[in-house]
Design brief:
By secondary structure, the protein is an alpha+beta fold. It is 26% helix and 30% strand. The structure holds a DNA duplex (12 and 12 nucleotides).
Length: 160
DNA sequence: GCCAACGTTGGC
DNA sequence: GCCAACGTTGGC
């Protein structure tokens, strides 16, 4: 199956690209949105590219790169009564929520800010800039993924 | 902290 | 099945 590309949001106060760099891999637990869940369960494949996005950040934007390192499994946080994302309706036999594993690839030298994406005419199709878009896991076109990777390279060159 | 946009819940 | 009420997301 062809490699796909994703944007995955995380609040850096909770889990930033630096956390992922330290951990190297993490289970993407806590997603409680059906559309986002379905992308993980049905569409994500090992090796898919991930733009690691910092939401609720100053500024918000793409902080680095990761890739899918394991297919979706049951999200254990749904069974944890002490968790803020506990789901009383879920059972071990019939889990409601799933998560893929994500592995660190790179931290951008300079964060590609949401505003930078907004003003770039070439990136106008990206879901993340659509008004009211709250989807925490979104598909990304390969061309957009490559372009954003390239923007980081450009920054590196400018600095010499 | 504000609030617009969105998703979910539940009464009817 | 409709839709008002509510809770959450996330930029600003």
């Amino acid at each position: 199956m062809a490699q796909k590309f994703w944007l995955m949001k995380s609040e850096p106060d909770t889990y930033s690209i630096d956390h992922l760099k330290k951990d190297q891999t993490t289970w993407w637990e806590g997603v409680r949105n059906y559309q986002a869940r379905n992308y993980m369960v049905k569409d994500m494949q090992v090796g898919d590219g991930v733009l690691f996005y910092h939401s609720n950040a100053q500024p918000p934007g793409v902080a680095g790169l990761a890739f899918v390192s394991h297919l979706a499994v049951a999200d254990n946080s749904q069974f944890d009564k002490k968790s803020s994302v506990y789901d009383p309706k879920a059972t071990k036999e019939k889990p409601n929520w799933f998560c893929t594993q994500v592995q660190f690839k790179a931290k951008f030298k300079n964060l590609i800010s949401l505003n930078q994406i907004k003003v770039d005419e070439r990136l106008k199709e990206m879901i993340v800039i659509k008004k009211g878009s709250r989807l925490s896991i979104q598909p990304v076109q390969k061309s957009d993924f490559d372009l954003i990777c390239g923007l980081d390279e450009t920054e590196k060159k400018k600095k010499g």
